[in-house]
UniProtKB/TrEMBL annotation:
Pfam families: BTB (PF00651). This is BTB domain-containing protein. InterPro entries: BTB-POZ/Galectin-3-binding, BTB/POZ_dom, SKP1/BTB/POZ_sf. Residues 1-18 have a biased composition (Basic and acidic residues). Signal peptide: none annotated. It comes from Pomacea canaliculata (Golden apple snail). SMART domains: BTB. Residues 52-122 form the BTB domain. Residues 1-21 are annotated as: Disordered.
């Protein structure tokens, strides 16, 4: 009988735990995110020829890309790739005309669309900012602008 009593006591204690858990239960929906895993999963597809559905030709270089990734990141790419009025829409290879400076920084720019991160320095900031502006990648444009404000000096300040 002692064991049964202890067991009942445990059950009561378990029941009390469940009761307190149910008091903390909220019927309000919550959004759960796994952003790091999502970014890591998308980033593995960067410049992978065997699974790409698009080739971007920039100068003499070719980059293997995914229409979805480009379109989700840039309204300009979305229009270029899906608007039937755009002459290169639907083609498997798209030629992009970029200045020499922008050509040098196109790969890190494109990789940003897959990874949401970029290595930048004072020398590359303008080229990357130009690409972000041209393709309306607003988050990258804001990051470049912030970087430039924090890390560059105007010529007048340098002379002082």
């Amino acid at each position: 009988m002692f064991h049964v009593f202890q067991r009942e006591e445990r059950m009561d204690s378990d029941h009390a735990e469940h009761s307190s858990l149910s008091l903390n239960y909220s019927s309000e929906p919550r959004t759960l995110r796994d952003e790091n895993n999502f970014i890591q999963n998308v980033s593995q597809f960067f410049n992978q020829e065997d699974i790409s559905d698009l080739v971007l030709k920039v100068g003499s270089k070719k980059f293997f890309a995914h229409k979805f990734v480009l379109a989700k990141s840039s309204e300009v790419f979305r229009t270029m790739l899906y608007d039937k009025r755009w002459q290169q829409a639907g083609l498997p290879e798209v030629d992009l005309e970029e200045s020499e400076e922008c050509q040098q920084h196109f790969e890190p720019f494109l990789k940003f669309l897959y990874t949401a991160e970029i290595n930048i320095c004072v020398e590359s900031a303008v080229g990357i900012l130009c690409l972000a502006d041209k393709y309306s990648v607003m988050s990258l444009k804001a990051l470049c602008t912030q970087y430039m404000v924090e890390n560059t000096q105007s010529p007048k300040c340098a002379m002082l």
